[in-house]
Task: structure prediction
Amino acid sequence: MVEFCPECSNLLRKRKDKDNSFLACKCGYQKEILSDNSKIESHVQKKKQALEKNLLIISEEDKISVHPKTKKNCPKCSNKEAETWQKQMRSADEPSTHFFRCTECKHTWRE
Ligand SMILES: [Zn+2]
Ligand SMILES: [Zn+2]
Result:
């Protein structure tokens, strides 16, 4: 692939750093090589799809109303038992949040 600089019409040379290859001119003009860009895009797309899949599975789990019970002091009443479950907030990169629901007064809170 031979390309010329649109700024000064010199021959562009192929350069490479860690992640990208690009065409560079001695005048300072740089152009990223598109094939590499589209690779990155499809990678991002894949990650997004995986994330949506994750969220779907979690919301399915949420429909199951019976959660395991654990010893936990309710902040509203003196009950010491609560249902517990975990929920992934926003993105899969973040730690999941613990939810609790008092078995007595049905107060729900999270940690
Ligand atoms: Zn140039
Ligand atoms: Zn309670």
